[in-house]
């Protein structure tokens, strides 16, 4: 995992002036491609987060149908594993429960940061975990199909669908990693996937980067590569916006 500073990009140059848009976009795209994520800081109030992110692809609707979602604590979600409360989340990628391809990118930007401790988004490069696999382990995770179920919070809202996918898949010559520590159904006797999940959780806990937000900050990552989670927090006013961006297939001549 790169050091967190390696993926932090300021909207301003050393003189406090906005970085030219072309240069900002170029550096931003390079960090996203190289490190798997980018954290844009010193963002002015006038910045159009939605318009900027549309440059990376079409937005994918959330399970509730929203294209631009509000990540705030929701009433009645305490005690349920769900992003709509103030509890910690365990490492996962997004969209493993979809029949279609999961979002290629996720992006969060901060409206109101939490006061006090906690509330950081945590990230770990899942390709490090993949690269530690032996040949037989990798082949098993590429060929074995698993059942991926919805998180408990979504099930509590009447959503009951699930999907069948391998952990590792190649799409348009790119690796797609699906990961969910608690919503991949582990078949009895499948020690390979059980060990993969446990090692993933251990490495995430030991090596993750924790991103602390300031107003306007934009965090954008490759969902086919990065595992993410969240630290618990006490301030109920924490408010982030979220979009999920579809995979964009390479252009053909």
Report on this model:
The chain has 253 residues and is α+β, with helices and mostly antiparallel strands. It has one domain: Double-stranded beta-helix. It is built from six helices and 15 strands. It has helices at 21-35, 49-53, 126-131, 135-143, 152-155, 191-207, and strands spanning 8-10, 37-41, 59-60, 69-71, 89-92, 105-112, 121-125, 146-149, 162-165, 168-171, 174-177, 209-211, 218-222, 226-230, 239-245. The strands form four sheets. Strands 1, 2, 3, 4, 6, 13 and 15 form a seven-stranded mixed sheet that branches. It has a four-stranded antiparallel sheet with strand order 5-14-7-12. Strand 10 and strand 11 form a beta hairpin. The longest helix is centred in the C-terminal third of the chain and has 17 residues, at 191-207. The mean pLDDT is 92.
């Amino acid at each position: 995992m790169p050091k967190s500073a390696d993926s932090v990009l300021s909207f301003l140059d050393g003189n406090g002036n906005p970085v030219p848009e072309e240069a900002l976009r170029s550096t931003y795209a390079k960090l996203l491609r190289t490190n798997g994520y980018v954290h844009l800081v010193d963002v002015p109030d006038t910045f159009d987060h939605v318009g900027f992110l549309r440059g990376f692809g079409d937005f994918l609707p959330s399970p509730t149908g929203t294209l631009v979602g509000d990540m705030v604590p929701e009433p009645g979600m305490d005690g349920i594993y769900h992003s709509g409360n103030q509890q910690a989340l365990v490492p996962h990628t997004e969209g493993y429960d979809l029949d279609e391809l999961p979002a290629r990118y996720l992006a969060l930007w901060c409206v109101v940061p939490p006061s006090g401790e906690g509330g950081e988004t945590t990230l770990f490069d899942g390709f490090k975990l993949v690269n530690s696999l032996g040949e037989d382990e990798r082949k098993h995770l590429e060929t074995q199909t698993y059942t991926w179920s919805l998180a408990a919070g979504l099930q509590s809202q009447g959503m009951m669908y699930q999907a069948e996918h391998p952990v590792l898949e190649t799409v348009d010559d790119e690796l797609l990693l699906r990961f969910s520590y608690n919503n991949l159904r582990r078949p009895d006797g499948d020690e390979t996937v059980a060990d993969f999940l446990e090692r993933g959780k251990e490495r995430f806990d030991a090596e993750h980067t924790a991103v602390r937000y300031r107003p306007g900050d934009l965090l954008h990552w490759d969902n086919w590569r990065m595992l993410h989670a969240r630290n618990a927090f006490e301030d109920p006013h924490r408010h982030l916006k979220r979009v999920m961006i579809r995979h964009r297939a390479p252009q053909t001549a």
